[in-house]
Amino acid sequence: MPGLLERYRDFLPITDKTPALSLHEGSTPLIHAPALSKLLDIELFLKYEGLNPTGSFKDRGMVMAVAKAVEDGADTVICASTGNTSAAAAAYAARSGLRCIVLIPDGNIALGKLAQAVAYGAQIVAINGNFDDALSLVQQISREHPIALVNSVNPYRLQGQKTAAFEIVDELGAAPDILALPVGNAGNISAYWMGFREYRTRGITDTLPRMWGFQAAGAAPLARGLERVDNPETLATAIRIGAPASAHLARAAVSESGGLFDMATDDEIMDAYFQIAREGVFCEPASATPVAGLLKLHAAGKLKPGSRVVAVLTGNGLKDPNNAMRNMAAPVAVKADMESVLATIL
Ligand code: F0G
C-alpha cells in the first residue's frame, strides 16, 4: 500500500508543492476479536494502529503536518508530547531533513517512545511539569519564533488522522454502529468524526457511528464534565492530560453523533490490556482504555447486543515495556537441563 498522502490524496489538503512524504503509514489492519466479541455480545473489531511505522496513530497526522511544514518552508518543528507524538514528529522530521524539538513531561513517558525520539535524532527537553504545561510552552514558542508547531492543534494533524475513519468504512463497507477510542488531548476523536462525516457527505457511507470516548479516571475532564483536571494521574501515560486542547471539537463529535464520554480506572485498563493481549494483539495501556470502557458499559447493560463496534488500539504494546512487566509474573528461572525444564512445564 502507498502512504496516506497518496492513498487519500483527493481528501487531503495536498497541492503540487506538497512533498511526497511517506514512511508507508496507515492501511493498518482491522482485526476481529472473537473472544471479546463473545464476552461483550457484540461484533468487535480492533483497529490496530500500533502497526504504523513509529508504532502509533500519530504517523497519520504527522506525515501531513510535516509535509505541509516543508511546503511552507519551515526548517524546525516542535511539539509537546506524552511520547507518541514526539516519536512520530522525530521520524518524519528526520525523513524530511528538519530539526525536531520535543518537550516531554520528565519521568512520565514510556521507555520505548523516548528511545524512538533519541534514535530519530530529536532534541529532547524533559520539563519538570506535565503535558499541559509542555503544550502551553510550545504554543508560545511557535508564536514567537519561526518554528512550526506539530501538535494536534495544527489542523493538518487532524486532516491526516481522519484517514483512519476512511479505512474503517473502506474495509467494513459501512460505518460501524460505535467507534470507541481513548481520549487524551482529544484530537483523534475529533479527526475520526471529521472523517466519517466527510465520507457521508461524499456519499461513500449512509450512516455515521456513535462516538464513544474513554478517558483514564485520573485524567478524565471530559468524562467528568469538567473544563480541566489540575494534576492528571494514570499509568496510561499517553493520555495523562488534564486540559485537552481539542475539548470543544470532541464534545461536538460526541453530541452530534449521540455518543458518550466515560472513563476507566487504571485497574480496569490493565485488565482490558491483558484481555486484548490474549486475543494475540499487544497494545499500550492507553489503547486498552476503550475496551475497558466497553467491558464496563456491557456490565451496566448499556451495550446493545449485536452492535458492530470498532475499538481503536492507538499504540503498540512494545512502546511501554515497563508497564507490561510491572503487571506480569516474572518468568521462572530453571537450570538448563531436561529434568528441570520438564519438572516446570509438565
Ligand atoms: N492513545 C495513545 C497511544 C496516545 O499516544 C494518545 C495521545 C492518545 C491515545 C490520545 O489521543 O490526544 O488525540 O486524544 N498522545 C499524545 C502524545 C498526547 O503526545 O503522544 P488524543
From TrEMBL:
CDD domains: Thr-synth_1. It comes from Deinococcus oregonensis. Pathway: Amino-acid biosynthesis; L-threonine biosynthesis; L-threonine from L-aspartate: step 5/5. Its EC number is 4.2.3.1. This is Threonine synthase. GO terms for molecular function: threonine synthase activity. It comes from the Bacteria. Its cofactor is pyridoxal 5'-phosphate. Residues 22-315 form the Tryptophan synthase beta chain-like PALP domain. Signal peptide: none annotated. Transmembrane segments: none annotated. Belongs to the threonine synthase family. Keywords: Amino-acid biosynthesis, Lyase, Pyridoxal phosphate, Threonine biosynthesis. It catalyses: O-phospho-L-homoserine + H2O = L-threonine + phosphate. InterPro entries: Ser/Thr_Dehydratase, Ser/Thr_deHydtase_PyrdxlP-BS, Thr_synthase-like, Thr_Synthase_bac/arc, TrpB-like_PALP, TrpB-like_PALP_sf. The keyword Amino-acid biosynthesis applies. Catalyzes the gamma-elimination of phosphate from L-phosphohomoserine and the beta-addition of water to produce L-threonine.
